[in-house]
Amino acid sequence: MSFAGTHTALVTPFRGGQFDADAFLGLIEEQIAGGITGIIPVGTTGESPTLDLDEHNEVIRTAINAAKGRCLVMAGTGSNATSEAVALTTEAERLGADAALLVAPYYNKPSQEGLYRHFRAISESVKIPLVLYSIPGRCGIEIGAETVARLANDCPNIRAIKEAGGSVERVSQLRSMLPPEFEILSGDDSLTIPFLSVGAVGVISVASNLYPAEVSRMVRLWLDGDTAGAVAIHRRLYPIFKDLFIEPNPVPVKFALSLRGKITPDVRLPLCEMSAANCDKLRKTLAALA
Prior knowledge:
This protein is an alpha/beta fold. It has one domain (about 5-225): Alpha-Beta Barrel (TIM Barrel), CATH 3.20.20.70. The protein contains twelve helices and ten strands. It has an eight-stranded parallel barrel, surrounded by six helices. A two-stranded antiparallel ribbon has the order 2-3. The longest helix has 17 residues, at about 225-245. The mean pLDDT is about 95.
């Protein structure tokens, strides 16, 4: 299995404080119609920290049943407790997920040896492909390049990494240390083209919640050798790439989807609605792209 392409880190819609399965199904159909490679339920954008265990599994189950094999389903199953990550990942495999996305443990800040043992334990519990997720800005730690290389060597089902450290140099370092079949995915929409230029093969995108066809086309053009065409799309979408992070993700993208009537803008505490000034800013950016 290759992860080359565009994977959407799906929002989790809420209505009246509860998971809105009907709205979620509508979003998934739009993603598939837009030619997306895969969808990711219950990642960071899916507000996984505020879903309880039953909700977490319900969202994954709903995504798998909706996709019906038409795109990959990469379930977010990471945790800062290894036992919980194992339980979530084994359940995702049982439900039929194609792969799992494993964020680095957060808050407890393990050593690199602890990270290695954490991911190895998850790897040994399942057979589905696993994608590491390094995002030091949220987790307080980076999955070191040497640790990624060690895991790639020792754990055959650890196949890729979502890199969200914001550094093109880091992607170059990873590419030089990893076997050619181990894939790197951008974790930042605005850095997708720079990352592709030094060895990444795709993106796990927030912006594709809104623009699945455009982001998918951007990545496909690059991979097909039409770099000028890909860069043109990047330049057009760059303002929204940035403005979707004017407040904590997924608050802006949920607000943007609500303007289209797709979902409510509801998020769960400790996230809250955007300021009026940022709502106006995002409206203007969206209007300029219409």
